[in-house]
Design goal:
Blueprint lengths: L2 H12 L6 E6 L5 E7 L2 H6 L10 H9 L2 E6 L3 H15 L6 E3 L6 E4 L8 E4 L8 E3 L5 H14 L19 H4 L13 H15 L3 H17 L3 H19 L2 E2 L6 E10 L2 E10 L2 E11 L6 H13 L8 E3 L7 H12 L4 E3 L4 H30 L12 H10 L7 E10 L2 E11 L2 E2 L5 E4 L10 H19 L6 E5 L2 H14 L6 E4 L5 E3 L7 E2 L5 H34 L7 H11 L2 H5 L3 H5 L5 H14 L12
Parallel strand pairs: 9-12, 12-13, 14-18, 18-19
Antiparallel strand pairs: 1-2, 1-3, 4-11, 5-6, 5-7, 8-11, 9-10, 10-11, 14-15, 15-16, 15-17, 19-20, 20-21
Helix pairs in contact: 5-9, 8-9, 13-16, 14-15, 16-17
Length: 631
C-alpha cells in the first residue's frame, strides 16, 4: 500500500463513526474488493491497515489492492447484517465468500396478496405478499405434488383480478368441478381462504394436521348422510397419504427443522440443506461456496446460513448447524421476527439431531465428490469447465490471451445500428460468466451526429462516453472487460471516450466480424483466437447480443417514425392522437387491422376520426408497406 494512499485511508478511518455499520473496499479501478460489517466501524476498518503482515495470504493480497473506502452507518447490527448481504449480492466482491448456484430452480407460489389466491409455478421471487415454497431441485416431484393439490382442492386457475374484474360467466373449470367459481360469487372469500390455509400446510410438509381435519370433516359429512361430500373428502385423504408416501422418514419423533451440512476440499466447498417437516425429508438444496481461500469453517457456515436464509420466507422452527458461527444469535433473532414465531439456531452435540447434521454433511461430501469427478472428466476430455474456485474456463482463456491481471467475468459490449444514417442508435449489453444480464442493458439514441450522416467512430465514441459517464456518476460497478463491435477505428474511438470518462485503465478489445479478429490497444496486428476457444465464444455471444439489442431498438424507432409520418397525413390526427394510437397499437398494420370500435375507443380519437383513419390507410394498403429491414 503506497504511503500516500495509506495516509489518505488513515485520515478517512479516523473520521469513521464508532457505531455499527458496513464498509466497502474498492481497488484503483473502482471495483469492489470486499464488503464487511462491524459493531464499531472505526475499530474494525483500522485493522486492515496492518493486514499486509497478516498470516492469511488472502487478507494480505486484498490489503495490497485497497485504494478507497466507503462506509454506511446502520441503526443496528441487524440492519448492518442485511445491508452487508445485499451489497455482497449486488457487487459479488472477489474477497467475500459467495454462494454459487447456477441453476434456476422453480418455486411454488401462493398469491396471498390476492383476495382469492392462486397456486402457480415460478422461477422469480417477487415481494408482493406471496408465499413461496422451494426451490425444488426435483422438478418432476414438484409438478406431481402440484397436480395432486389441484386435484384435491378447487383452487382457481384463471388470471382475473378478483373482485375488481369479473368474467361474464363461470369458465369450464366450474362446470367440470375444478373450481367453485368465486368469480361469480358462488364461493365466499372466507371459505376459499380456509382451503388456501390447508394448501399452505400441505406445501409446508405439515400434512398430519390437515389429514386429521379432513378425517373429522369426512366423519361429520357421513353422520349427516352427505355421502357425496364424504366421498370427496375420502379422495382428499387418499391424496394426502400419497404425498406423504413420497417423502422419506428421517426422524420418527417428528419435528420441523432445516439441517445444514458442510464439506470442503481445497478451494472448493459445498453446503447442503435438508428440509425436514413432521419428521419427513422433503428435499435438499445444494450450494457451492466460492472465494473460500483459508477461511475457517465457521466463516463458511455463517456465509451459507446468511446467504440462504436472509432471502427466504418458508422458515423452519429450528435450524441445525454443524458448529457455532459469527452472528449466530443475531441471525436467530432476525429470522424469528420474520417468521412471526421463535426460530432456534442450534448446534446439536449428540443424539438424533446430531446424526441429522452428519447426514447433511455426508450429502455435501457426496455432492463434492461428484463435482470433482465431473471436473476431472471434463479436463481429461479437453472440455472447457469451471475450475475448483468456480472461475469459468472461458474467463481463464481470455485472461491468458489478453494478458489480463484477472479472469474477466463481467463483460460489457457496445454496438451501433444505423440504416443510411437514419434512426441511429447504440447499445450496451452486459454478460456475467457468459450469460446475458438484461438488468444492465442500456440503449442510446445518437444525439451528437446529425440524422442522415454516417460516422461510426463518432457514434461509438458518444455511446461509450455517455455510458461510462453515467456509470461513474452513479457509483455502479465497472466491467472486467470492454468489448467493441468493430475494428481498430471503433476501438480507438471507444478508448478516447473511456479516457474522457476516467476509466481508461479498463481492458478493452474490439472484435471484427469478417475474420473474427481481435484488436487490442497498442498492438498493430490483430489477434486470431482458435475457433474452438471458449473465450472467443464468449466474445461472439456478447457481440451478437449487442447487435441484436441495437437492431431491435433501431427497428422500433423506424416503425414509430413511419407510423407518425403516415398518420400526420390524415386530417384531424395531430401529435397527441398520434401518440395515443402509437401507445395502443404500436404499428400501422395493427391500426389497419383494428375495427372501427377499437379505433374509436382510443383516447381522443372518436368515431369520425376513426373512419378517416381506416379510409386513408385502406387507400394505400397494397402499395405502401414497411421498408425492408436490415439483418
Amino acid at each position: 500500500m503506497a504511503e500516500s494512499k495509506r495516509e489518505q485511508l488513515k485520515s478517512q478511518i479516523g473520521r469513521l463513526p464508532t457505531g455499527a455499520g458496513v464498509y466497502m473496499f474498492r481497488d484503483s479501478r473502482g471495483r469492489v474488493l470486499y464488503v464487511g460489517k462491524a459493531k464499531s466501524l472505526r475499530a474494525r476498518v483500522r485493522s486492515y491497515l496492518s493486514a499486509e503482515r497478516d498470516p492469511s495470504p488472502k487478507r494480505r493480497q486484498m490489503a495490497r489492492r485497497i485504494a478507497s473506502l466507503e462506509s454506511y452507518v446502520a441503526e443496528s447490527e441487524t440492519e448492518a447484517l442485511l445491508l452487508e448481504w445485499n451489497l455482497i449480492r449486488e457487487y459479488q466482491p472477489p474477497f467475500n465468500i459467495q454462494l454459487r448456484d447456477d441453476k434456476s430452480y422453480p418455486y411454488i407460489r401462493v398469491t396471498l396478496g390476492e383476495p382469492f389466491p392462486r397456486v402457480l409455478v415460478t422461477r422469480r421471487l417477487i415481494r408482493d405478499g406471496s408465499r413461496y415454497f422451494g426451490p425444488y431441485t426435483n422438478v418432476g416431484a414438484m409438478r406431481s405434488a402440484l397436480r395432486t393439490i389441484k386435484e384435491l382442492y378447487t383452487v382457481r386457475s384463471c388470471r382475473y383480478e378478483l373482485p375488481k374484474k369479473l368474467p361474464p360467466r363461470p369458465c369450464l373449470d366450474y362446470h367440470i368441478g375444478r373450481c367453485k367459481a368465486p368469480c361469480a360469487g358462488y364461493q365466499a372469500e372466507e371459505d376459499y381462504r380456509g382451503m388456501i390455509e390447508e394448501i399452505l400446510d400441505v406445501l409446508g410438509g405439515r400434512t398430519g394436521a390437515v389429514r386429521r381435519r379432513v378425517r373429522d370433516k369426512m366423519k361429520g359429512a357421513a353422520d349427516a348422510m352427505e355421502y357425496e361430500r364424504a366421498a370427496e373428502l375420502r379422495d382428499v385423504l387418499r391424496g394426502l397419504e400419497t404425498i406423504e408416501r413420497r417423502q422419506a422418514a428421517v426422524d420418527h419423533r417428528g419435528g420441523e427443522h432445516d439441517v445444514v451440512g458442510l464439506r470442503r476440499e481445497g478451494t472448493l466447498a459445498c453446503g447442503v440443506i435438508l428440509k425436514v417437516r413432521e419428521g419427513r425429508l422433503l428435499g435438499r438444496e445444494i450450494h457451492f461456496l466460492q472465494n473460500v481461500g483459508d477461511e475457517e469453517d465457521a466463516e463458511l457456515t455463517a456465509a451459507l446460513v446468511s446467504g440462504h436464509y436472509l432471502r427466504r420466507q418458508d422458515l423452519p422452527a429450528e435450524l441445525l448447524v454443524p458448529e457455532d458461527f459469527p452472528d449466530r444469535e443475531l441471525i436467530q433473532e432476525h429470522l424469528s421476527t420474520r417468521r412471526a414465531g421463535p426460530l432456534r439456531v442450534h448446534v446439536p452435540q449428540r443424539g438424533a439431531k446430531r446424526r441429522l447434521v452428519e447426514l447433511a454433511a455426508a450429502n455435501a461430501a457426496d455432492v463434492l465428490r461428484e463435482e470433482h469427478l465431473r471436473l476431472d472428466a471434463m479436463r481429461e476430455a479437453g472440455t472447457p469447465s469451471d475450475d475448483a474456485a468456480g472461475v469459468p474456463a472461458a474467463a481463464r482463456r481470455l485472461a491468458e490471451s489478453f494478458e489480463l491481471p484477472a479472469p474477466p467475468r463481467r463483460i460489457v459490449c457496445f454496438d451501433i445500428s444505423t440504416l443510411g444514417g437514419s434512426s441511429s442508435v447504440g447499445s450496451a449489453v452486459w454478460l456475467e460468466d457468459g450469460k446475458p444480464f438484461s438488468d444492465e442493458y442500456r440503449r442510446f439514441r445518437i444525439r451528437e451526429v446529425p440524422d442522415g450522416e454516417t460516422d461510426d467512430y463518432a457514434m461509438m465514441q458518444e455511446v461509450v462516453r455517455r455510458y461510462f459517464d453515467r456509470r461513474v456518476e452513479e457509483g455502479r460497478h465497472l466491467p472486467d472487460l470492454v468489448l467493441v463491435d468493430g475494428g481498430r477505428g471503433q476501438l480507438a474511438a471507444a478508448m478516447q471516450a473511456m479516457e474522457a470518462a476516467g476509466v481508461s485503465d479498463l481492458p478493452a478489445v474490439a472484435l471484427a466480424k469478417r475474420e473474427e479478429e481481435v484488436y487490442r490497444p497498442g498492438d498493430p496486428e490483430p489477434l486470431r483466437l482458435d475457433r474452438r476457444d471458449p473465450g472467443l465464444h464468449w466474445l461472439q455471444r456478447a457481440r451478437d447480443e449487442a447487435h441484436r439489442f441495437a437492431l431491435a431498438y433501431n427497428r422500433t424507432l423506424r416503425r414509430r417514425r413511419l407510423l407518425r409520418s403516415r398518420l400526420s397525413e390524415i386530417r384531424g390526427v395531430g401529435p397527441a392522437r398520434e401518440q395515443a394510437l402509437l401507445q395502443r397499437f404500436g404499428s400501422l398494420e395493427a391500426i389497419r387491422g383494428a375495427t372501427l370500435d377499437e379505433l374509436a375507443a382510443t383516447p381522443g380519437v372518436g368515431p369520425g376520426t376513426a373512419e378517416r383513419i381506416l379510409a386513408k390507410l385502406a387507400e394505400g394498403s397494397a402499395s405502401r408497406r414497411l421498408p425492408c429491414e436490415d439483418d
